[in-house]
Amino acid sequence: MGRATILVADDDASIRTVLAQALTRAGYDIRTTGHAGTLWSWVSQGEGDLVVTDVVMPDENAFDLLPRIRQARPDLPVIVMSAQNTFMTAIRASERGAYEYLPKPFDLKELVTIVGRALSRPRGIGVGASNEVEEIPLIGRSPAMQDIYRAMARLMSTDLTVMISGESGTGKELVARALHDYGKRRGGPFVAVNMAAIPRDLIESELFGHEKGAFTGAHARSPGRFEQAEGGTLFLDEIGDMPMEAQTRLLRVLQQGEYATVGGKASVRTNVRIIAATNKDLRQSIELGHFREDLFFRLNVVPLRLPPLRERSEDVPDLVRHFLARATREGLAPKQIDAVAMDRLIRYRWPGNVRELENLVRRLTALYAQETITAPVIEAELDLASAPPPVVAAARETSSNEALPLSQAVDRYLKQYFASLGGALPPPGLYHRLLREVEAPLLTAVLTATNGNQIRAAELLGLNRNTLRKKIRDLDLPIIRQSSSGPGR
Q: What are the residue boundaries of the Response regulatory domain, all occurrences included (predicted)?
């Protein structure tokens, strides 16, 4: 058998030259063109063993050409290159049947490796096309996110179980939803369950449902999340907080494909895709005896690690523009961030990751009247985010035997705060910033007092339960586990 011929298409002559040199050194014959029409002519005449093409060509977009290539020569592998390095580029490449997607710039050694793998793969393996999609669920063009996009694109045509790991606020549920919305099960339901938010003694009922009379208070049959997710995707968030008993039952479901409701006798067959997520080191949990090793291996079929925002700081401007545009669509006044302020956002370490950035942008659009947000405003917001709550700061000035009323503690803090400005005034939005600082310790104290019972906590605070849940999420408050002997039981 002779040497394989690679068809290279890119409207940039210098890129064509570099690719041709690298692939020639690897032992391939090369034909290059700057037009999609010429590429299609070669392919339709049966020439070439593999195609390497840019997406944007002067006469036709490669995504429009790919379906014709697949119809004419379904076994011809196509590698797509693009400088438009978004999640949707990777997804469209996968949907159109591309063998691989490479974001520009890329390593030539990686290209040669992918070419070799594509030429040696079994023939007859294809990827079906699906409907066009418009909204971009994931934002970022950094190398770290490109790796995530490419891995996700490969998963769209599979039902493999995925384990998403990453710090709080990195977007684990967003990735899970994207895997569902653009995958094989997009026509089915997406059901999300936060293991850390459910009382330990109710987790099995929550997951598998219960029969009437199964336990005190079970006045009617209730479907579980597995039943609700039938034919779709079940997202198990914070899987590291699942109790051992529930882990055992989940393992049995994954092994046997069936479960029994709490109080039920008959086995129920299940057809769901499992996506799990955690912000914990599950291997350490295994060593401590808190997580089953066999369950870990069942869930960790495809591991995806989401990078913290500090590892992809170059994505901050794109994220800020995305959140500003979203706020404008929601009816808030248009805002922009000046260059110095944006540089400060890029240099910040973002302990709360993308969620913290999104919340900051929402505050900027809601609380500040000026159209252009400047560096002093950003500095004040970020300093406030890292400062201790005002009551705590004021309490440090008192003796251990002196308990100041809340109003006096805040008054002392504010006097010290204004004195520290040396006669200058703080940036606008002080009222809302201070309320936000009091809100987090207040909610934490009430949740602690009610032993994590969110129904009791919402009642005590005078808030709707859904409002409380949203505040817990937005403020990134730790979940306090409710015990069976806690208040309200």
A: 5-119
Burial classification of residue 165, based on how many CB atoms lie within 10 Å of its CB (0-12 exposed, 13-18 middle, 19 or more buried): buried
**Average of per-residue pLDDT values in the chain:** 85
Please give the backbone phi and psi of residue 362, each rounded to the nearest 5 degrees, phi first. -65, -40
Please tell me the predicted confidence (pLDDT) of residue 220. Answer: 86
User: Which pLDDT does position 481 carry in this prediction?
Assistant: 61
The strand pairing partners of 207, in sequence order, are: none
Residue 226 belongs to what H/E stretch? helix 225-228
The SS3 assignment for 437 reads helix
Q: Assign 79 to helix, strand or coil.
A: strand
pLDDT higher than 70, residue 129: no
Residue with tokens 């009551």: 391
Report yes or no: 191 and 232 within 8 Å, Cβ to Cβ: yes
Looking up tokens 């529930």 gives 246
Q: What is the DSSP letter of 223?
A: -
pLDDT in tens, 442-470: 888 888 888 888 888 888 888 888 788 88
Q: Which long-range contacts (CB under 8 A, 24 or more apart) does 285-292 make?
A: 285/240, 290/240, 290/244, 291/240, 291/242, 291/247, 292/244, 292/247, 292/248, 292/251
Return the closest-CA partner of residue 153 out of 83, 239, 79: 79
Query: What is the model's pLDDT at position 132?
Result: 36
Laid out side by side, the sheet with 302-305 consists of: 190-194, 233-237, 273-278, 162-165, 302-305
Q: Which domains does the chain have, with CATH numbers?
A: 5-134 (3.40.50.2300), 149-305 (3.40.50.300), 427-489 (1.10.10.60)
**pLDDT score of 421:** 72
Q: Residue 328: is its pLDDT beyond 70?
A: yes
3-state secondary structure of 304: strand
> In which region does residue 402 sit, left (phi positive, over 0), alpha (psi from -120 to 50) or beta (all else)?
beta
Tokens 């944006």, residue located: 342
Beta pairing, strands 268-269 & 258-259: antiparallel
Task: Using CB atoms within 10 Å of the CB of residue 337, give its burial: 0 to 12 exposed, 13 to 18 middle, 19+ buried.
Answer: buried
pLDDT confidence band for 265 (50 / 70 / 90): confident
Alpha-carbon span 218 to 179, nearest angstrom? 35
- Please list the alpha-helical segments (H only) found in 309-423: 316-329, 339-347, 353-367, 375-386, 390-395, 406-420
